[in-house]
Amino acid sequence: MFRNNLKYYIPRNVDICRGKHTSKLDAIREKIREGPSFADFVSEDRPKDWDDYKGKLKREKGERERLRLPPWLKTTIPTGAKFHDIKKQLRSLNLSTVCEEARCPNIGECWSGGKHGTSTATIMLMGDTCTRGCMFCSVRSARAPPPLDAREPARSALAVARWGLAYIVLTSVDRDDLPDGGSAHIAETVKEIKKQNKDILVECLVPDFRGNRDSIGRIAECGLDVFAHNVETVERLTPFVRDPRAGYRQTLKVLETAKEINPDLITKTSIMLGLGETDEQVEQTMKDLRDVGVDCLTLGQYMQPTKKHLKVFEYVTPAKFKQWEDKGNELGFLYTASGPLVRSSYRAGEFFITSLLKDRKAKSL
């Protein structure tokens, strides 16, 4: 889904007690409330009456016309020196970015740095061609993509070193044409990055590797800090939204297996809203994720990338996203980032994860 990656943030120290409703967890959430929120990363001139918007937000049964974009989803055209500098560096290193391939609506803010001046970029490993064809994703697909570039792990590490990043999220296309699904390539990239700076925190948003335990284990034990794999949507809609090889139960098993292999990992996933899911189905999905030990959850609005992709069934209001954030906290997720423009890798969430990981490492010394 929203495969945003390779981001960096300023850490803050907090205490952590994982997955339980305790005073420590409440204290962490209080600190998060004091820190960056979704509102900190969107335009300051946004309408103050979002929740009073009277435009059409949902398609009725049988309607085929596309919904008009509501005001809270309108973003600015990418500009600025930082935006062009990052684009130039990525091109010079021959690296693909999911920001561009997946047509992320946050690309202008992330690459230019936004009002906080914190530029972020995205590297998509294993090329720009996926072997799967999910109905929500605009990344190109083919049965036999070009061979892997053996130099990509080193080039990715070089990009990280140049930008002086502290927290990185790496993602990739699916490569079902490879025996290991590309797990060795991703693991090598993590090792190259850690070789440059052992203190860098690395999150990998990975494919399902067709559920292969060896491939999942190779990633879980390669030195990364956060294992992310997206469930994307509710179980009922999965066959219509995702490639047939990507099953709902398989995704749950991948997240569960990663935690079994390396209990110290933080696991993370993301749900798209606006595809026709019901509240009951979203809540059940969140419960299923907690049952397999998922720590962090993001929820964002599905945006139709091209006319060939699934139409938006509903634009979910910011108030409704806030309700899902509250539900996530109630269910015991360590962190729930929920908002219309929230994507898999979300800045306020990564402030939290950075603090969590730094605190854990400090206590282990």
Short description:
Helix content is 36%, strand content 10%. It is of the alpha/beta class. The two termini are 37 Å apart.
Describe the structure.
With 365 residues, this protein is an alpha/beta fold. The chain is built from 12 helices and 9 strands. The strands form 2 sheets. A 7-stranded parallel β-sheet has the order 1-4-5-6-7-8-9, with helices on both faces. Helix 5 packs parallel to helix 6, helix 6 runs parallel beside helix 7 and helix 7 packs across helix 9 (248-261). It starts with 22 loop residues before the first helix and ends with a helix.
Estimate the global geometry from the Cα principal axes: globular
Which regions are unreliable across 5 or more consecutive residues at pLDDT < 50? 1-21, 35-48, 96-103, 106-120
| Mean residue pLDDT | 78
- Helicity, in percent? 25-40%
The helix count comes to 12
Q: Could you give the order of the helices and strands?
A: HHHHEEEHEHEHEHHEHEHEH
For the biggest sheet, the summary is: 7 strands, parallel
* Cα-to-Cα separation, first versus last residue: 37 Å
Number of strands: 9
Computed structural class: alpha/beta
**Residues in β-strands, percent:** 5-15%
Determine Rg (CA atoms, Å): 19 Å
Name the strands of the widest sheet in spatial order: 1-4-5-6-7-8-9
